[in-house]
Amino acid sequence: MNISKHEQRVLHELALGGAIHHERGEGGKIRAITCYTRDGYVLSDCTLDVFMRLRKRRFIRSQNGQPYRVSRQGIKAVRAQLNQR
Question: What is the residue range of 45's domain?
Answer without folding.
Answer: 5-77
